Amino acid sequence: MNKIFTILIFALAINASAQQTPKTSTNQYSNGKKTGLWTQKQLSSTWDGIPVVKADLRWSKVTESRPFKEITEITTENYLKDRLEGLWTQTKTVKNSWGDPAPGGTSSSVYIVKKNFVGDEMTTIEATRKKNGKINLSLKGAYKNKLVDGVWLFNDNNKTYSYTFTNGYLTNYEIKEIGTGKLIEGNKIEVDNDLINNYFTKSDNNFEIEYGQNFSELRDAKISIQKVNENLSIIKLCRLIKEAANFVNLDVRLFSNAFGEITPYKNENYNEFGYSPSITCEVLSENNYRILDDVYFKDVKSEYAFLNLTTNSQGQFLNTDWENIKSFTNSRYFFQLKSYLYKGDTTRLKAFLTGSKKFNIIEYFSTEPIPNGKYVNVGNNEVEFNDYLQFLVSLSLGDKENWKAFIDKTYNSNAFSGSWQEIILNQFTEIQASTSFVKTDINDAINYLKSKDDEIKQMNNVAISNIKEFKLGNQVWMATDLCIIPSHLSYQLVIDNKIQDNKVGKGLILYGLSNDNKNLCPNGWRLPRTSDWETLIKSLGGDKKAAGELLMVGKGSGFETAFPIIFQTDDYNKKLKFSTSSPGGYITLDANGNVTAFKFGYDYQFTYYTNTSFVPCRCIKE
Q1: Burial of residue 12 (number of CB atoms within 10 Å: 0-12, 13-18, 19+)
Q2: Is the bond preceding residue 616 a cis peptide, omega within 30 degrees?
Q3: Can you point out the beta strands (E) in 256-361?
Q4: Under 8 Å between Cβ of 362 and 386
Q5: Which among 309, 361, 384, 603 could disulfide-bond with 225, CB atoms 3.0 to 4.6 Å apart, if both were Cys?
Q6: Closest to 476 in 3D by CA, of 536, 563, 422, 517
Q7: What pLDDT is attached to residue 214?
């Protein structure tokens, strides 16, 4: 039996002139997780939106349109292991008073909201508003798979509104006059079941994609292709989106304004009561092929199948006459290049590369970050993606010098979802399994990647063997900054005072302020803690800035640092700086054991860009 304990919390709501009645809550935990019944009661009073107490009111200014409000709000929730489970209720009572002498008039409203949850997901909702004891606003509805479902009922004191949903799709609605039951409006709505069924049917010419830059929230777009003949493929793009549920001729704002944010569904202006799915389709043509710029395939296999269906017998993507075409989208160029690569058609590939030089297309590639890992999770922008495709071209054509240069440049650099070498190896696996790519140089490239690992290990072993130590006070420090290349990406390499794109080499290494760097130091050494630096400062006189200056080259302490630092203001802009009059800092561990920077002096850039800075590491003896 888990031990359950109860906490009673008192909080005071205070403004400048008045103290409000305390809020009380009763909460239960089991093994550190919310469990059982949680209740909260809040008492407050306001006038014109300002918290006040009754005794402070100037009743001459309290009118029926600007009444004094006394509000009682009680909320109950049921939890199971931190997740809402079962009934959730909220009752808010608002008593209005006004007039002089006080009170000249009164009214009251009671708002009751009930929701049911299963595993933190809302399944039903019911809300009513009573004014002076009479219900004048209500709603009731249900959800299935986070979509509106079943019959939804609304009442605004003049009309009743009934809406029937099936799997989120509106199939029927009726609007009637209260009292007479007279039908004001109603309609049955035909749902295109063929479209829905076809959309979710998997077939050889139906491809799941992510459809993204302007529609990044859409994860269920699909392309279907009908191959008419060798030179004609009909491409249809369909998108499944979730839209605000269509409660025909109902002003949902009336209800959302009355009951507040009682559902998890919102738009920019007001609370929604739920979502419905919507499938929209369009056939791609010469006029709208630019849509393909936003098409991201989820794997190489489906992309290769797409290319097989959209290239003609001459290998031309979308029957493109590359000799005479005047304008085209970047995606058309990329898909054409990949088609030749994936099919292993090196003859046409060479001819295409020769002919495409006249386009000077590279100047039109975007350097903007690509959402969702465009182009099968490769590269952060179109320029990087083109560089990657040129790498595949050099592999396909056996151009060892160029594909090795690409690996040298990108090794231990960030791609979209990891290091470039990880991306390349994953792509090799997919390409070899799913396409007819020329595989002659792939094994050589894999071995070359492994040789880079061996090169780093050898460099690190040399660096470790050359470590010298020196004593400062009672502490033993490394005599120079650490120069070990870590097994992750949170570092920068500097050679001849230049930040290197190629992150493998012998030079100055600066480390990111990431917990990936917790275990940088070799055996027998460790990262200094904040307390270690404080001890060092005491041994140098006790003043932080002065101590930092003594640590600099030629100042006599023996530490001999220039406090190098790299500020990274965004993904593409990095700046190397060495401290002069204002000492910089070193990577360290804070009191909680997290990586941070210990700063000896103030530097605007270092302070402002701390989380994206790279600093040196000086290990201390265990």
Answers
A1: exposed
A2: no
A3: 275-283, 295-297
A4: yes
A5: 309
A6: 536
A7: 47
Q: Mind giving me the DSSP string for 177-236?
A: ETTT--EEEEEE----HHHHHHHH---TTEEEEEE-TT-TT---EEEEEEEEETTEEEEE
Q: Return the pLDDT at 571.
A: 57
How many residues make up the chain in this entry?
622
pLDDT in tens, 8-46: 322 223 333 334 555 666 788 888 889 999 999 999 999
Closest by alpha carbon to 256, among 147, 113, 50, 68? Answer: 113
How many other C-beta atoms lie within 10 A of the C-beta of residue 217?
8
- Token pair belonging to 259: 């009951």
H/E run at residue 514:
none
Q: At residue 269, what is the residue type?
A: N
Answer yes or no: are the C-beta atoms of 583 and 601 closer than 8 Å.
Answer: yes
Which of the pair, 185 or 603, is modelled with greater confidence? 185
The label of the residue with tokens 């000086």 reads 618
Q: Where are the domains of the chain?
A: 4-188, 296-440, 467-621
Model confidence at 570, pLDDT cuts 50, 70, 90, reads: low
State how far the Cα of 323 lies from the Cα of 474, in Å rounded to an integer.
76
Q: State both tokens at 6.
A: 């109860």
